[in-house]
Amino acid sequence: MARHRTTTTTLFRAAMVTVAATALAVTSGAAANAQQVTGGTAPAGNQVAPNQDRSAEVGEATLLAALQRDLDLTEAQAQRLMATQDTVVATDAELQEELGEAYVESRFDAASGTLTVAVTDAAAAETVTVAGAEAEVVGDRLAELTGITDELDALAESDPAAVAGIVSWSVDLAADQVVVTVLADQAAETAAVTGQFGSAVQVETTEAAPSLTQDLPYLDGGLAYNTAAGGCSTGFNLSQGYVLTAGHCHTVGLTASAFGQTIGPVAHRNFPGADYAAIRVTNSYWIQGPWVWLYPGFFTIVGNASPTSGTAVCSSGRTTGLTCGTVTGTGESVNFGGTVVNNLIRHSACVRQGDSGGPTFTTNGFAVGTNTGAQLIGGNCTNPPVSWSYPTTTSLAAYQSLYGASLLTG
Predict the structure, then answer these.
(1) One Pfam family from the UniProt entry (predicted)?
(2) Residue 296, preceding peptide bond in cis (omega within 30° of 0)
(3) Is omega for the bond preceding 391 within 30 degrees of 0, making it cis?
(4) Rounded CA separation 321/270 (Å)
(5) Residue 282 CA from chain centroid, whole number
(6) Euclidean distance between CA atoms 395 and 372, whole angstroms
(7) Which residues are catalytic?
(8) How far apart are CA 237 and CA 199, in angstroms?
(9) Closest CA to 125 of 85, 95, 158, 170
(10) Where are the chain's structural domains?
(11) What predicted TM-score, i.e. pTM, was given to this entire model?
(12) Is residue 312 within 8 Å of 325, Cβ to Cβ?
């Protein structure tokens, strides 16, 4: 196996005076910040495990250590969380399939081990109860709340200046409101937009503006790759010879390479609005499989799932390495300095510039997203971190349709 030589360069920059929610790409020629940050340290180079056969053992130990570090857990608590989430994620996935359009969203309370599933009607609620989860029936109120987020999405597209001071917006069913986060120093300017919806909107303030986060023979998820325009991190390997990454990283036609070897061209991208892209692997040097790199150690991806709020997830990328956190929201629209990406997963795993495109996954091996951006201060994560990933349920469906490509699983 070739040794991986990690290089670090920086694409979108966080503003240095205010906290910037940043896209995690790296611009060609600009060095990324490699200081220790909340949630993890920048990975050292040449940390490729020498033997793929030992990956499961090494990877599991690394993952367990990251959960303890980033979620402030004991080893026993981390092991218990992983075991509980195995059941929760499996139950939630089965309910999504069984309920179809009657399924709305789910939340996991790690303290009590309770899975709550929001549904549209009483019959679906009965199915949830039989499965051992708590049911929550939402009615006309859901349509009202999603109407508000749709209106904000449309405003961001038609008049970007009107939402310049708004960081993000999403439905919070537990609060029965749309939560809108605005920059603290622009709260007055955004009041005309947020105030029109009355008590249906809860306004929160932040000092941090979002920004996008971009900066192998095994072409694992979470490794550094570059094009002439800069660098990002690989996400998940797909069948038919594709690699999933972030759409904001690079335009179609640019050639991606890693560690002195060509990977292939960027075949497709969807950005802004969405944030996913596919690299076509045309160099037979690379070995693709269902693995992500944990700095150090490998971890096997076993499937794809929509994330449940409250569950622990981990992320891997070229700048920050492996970090873990908790899903704190789904379906969120985020304004990256005038560029809005919709339907994002918000979580507290620290990701930074260069980590864009890298994998976000559950502790039992389900892919949930690829890194899009984070709130950063001087290139470092806030405390607690606020990060966003684009859901693989959407991107994988697109590439199944376009190329017949599916997630590689083990």
Answers:
(1) Pro_Al_protease
(2) yes
(3) no
(4) 26
(5) 27
(6) 13
(7) 248, 275, 356
(8) 44
(9) 95
(10) 1-89+207-410, 141-206
(11) 0.69
(12) yes
| DSSP H or E stretch at residue 343 | strand 339-347
What CATH fold (topology level) applies to the domain 1-89+207-410? Thrombin, subunit H (2.40.10)
Q: Are 383 and 396 in contact (CB under 8 A)?
A: no
- The answer to whether the 1-89+207-410 and 141-206 domains have the same CATH topology is no
Task: Give the pLDDT of the chain (410 residues) as one tens digit per residue.
Answer: 222 222 222 222 222 222 334 555 654 332 232 222 222 333 333 233 333 443 445 578 888 999 999 999 999 999 999 889 889 999 999 999 999 999 999 999 988 999 999 999 999 999 999 999 999 998 778 889 999 999 999 999 899 889 999 999 999 988 889 999 999 999 999 999 999 999 999 999 998 788 766 444 789 999 999 998 889 999 999 999 999 999 999 899 999 999 889 999 999 999 999 999 999 999 998 999 999 999 888 899 999 999 899 999 999 999 999 999 999 999 999 999 999 999 999 999 999 999 999 999 999 999 999 999 999 998 999 999 999 999 999 999 999 999 999 999 99
Q: Which amino acid is at 232?
A: C
- Distance, CA of 95 to chain centre: 22
Q: Distance between terminal CA atoms of the chain?
A: 20
Helix (H, G, I), strand (E, B) or coil at 169: strand
Topology (CATH level 3) of domain 141-206: GMP Synthetase; Chain A, domain 3 (3.30.300)
**Is 380 in a helix, a strand, or coil?**
strand
